[in-house]
Model the fold of this input.
Amino acid sequence: MLPGCTVQELVDRVAGKWSVCILVAAADGPIRFTELERAITGISRRMLTLTLRNLERDGMLVRTVYPTVPPRVEYSLTPMAQELHAALLTIITWAERHRADVAQARERYDTRT
Amino acid sequence: MLPGCTVQELVDRVAGKWSVCILVAAADGPIRFTELERAITGISRRMLTLTLRNLERDGMLVRTVYPTVPPRVEYSLTPMAQELHAALLTIITWAERHRADVAQARERYDTRT
DNA sequence: CGGAATCCGGGATGATACTG
DNA sequence: CAGTATCATCCCGGATTCCG
Done:
């Protein structure tokens, strides 16, 4: 696993905090900007925009603009991103299964003499 | 996917750049500090130490000290971390498979008028 | 509604030096 | 060999403002 290699960069990019949130939130179908903003507690508008742009640039998201008033923009996962989402779910499931274990390990580590 | 929730934090922690590198490097068996330093190009000694401590604290790594001269310290994955490593391999494999796709998507995005 | 642009503070990170 | 300590820096991301 060499830093600087493309795979490393790609893993970093898609494993980012907000990227994961967006991929999960958009997994169930097209979702609007404001819906994402509400679904992802704590994200700033700026980071939402930037992360969406990066994911779109990487071919993970399709951005569809409906020229209505008010404007309506929907984001949906590409097939490639759906594969990624499935893989991410494995990690998330793992994290849920071991949440208590990690908490316990931390406590033991922190209370060591 | 709510930021602030424990699962989110855990995914963030284990999905970190150096954490992934260390987990991969240690997957094939116990590995020494200096071996990690050489295996992970670009990591500073400081970040290696900090990331190792965090992974150990979270119960992902076991640190074994052999009281020899010079000192010998080996790090190995816990069963929990081995499960995580398997899941990470899925992501890494995905990244390798789609490396070219992402590069092409970026080029198209950047050269758009 | 869905952004873009700007400013700016702090935590993450690197560099360097020292040590049991 | 396997770290720790300290300082300096840098850039990530929040806050704010403005816009079609």
Summary: The two ends of chain B are 35 Å apart (CA to CA).
